Amino acid sequence: EIPTEAMKLTVKNEASSPNAEIFISGPIGESWCDDTLMDEKRFRSALDAIPEGRKINLYFNSPGGSVADGLAMHSAIKRRRNDITSIITGEAVSIASYIPLAAGKVITPKAAVWMIHKPWTGDAGNADRLRKTADALDTYETAMVSEYVAKTGQKEEKIREDLRAETWMSG
Is 25 a catalytic residue? Predict the structure, then answer.
């Protein structure tokens, strides 16, 4: 077991258990005000410690956070998708709604909650800088929409509409 109390990440990889388990709870990504958050590097390290081919139950309860960390976590899961089942134990909100979709199987109990919205950021600068930031947000959205479409079977227009509306869903 990897001690990860401060990382909002718990890993159980005991040989006596049929599956390894990874628990993600709390915000995703580093923060200037808190260095205890769970980022992509810590997640990838935990995932890499579990041998390929071993089945993994990946539990989520997160309000979201960093899009960059979330995209990288999604990619790490996708490389091992046949080994991984994502299980939403509480909430999968914002970027945390995107990360679990990379798994081969996603389980959402009726009491679990998902929320999707357009990517956003807190940025400062002149008009040119903010236009570049807006373009970057559009690029993130386009990348994420393709995965939401592929995993849900919904049309792209419907996903984009749900993102604009900030849509909350239960299991």
Answer: no
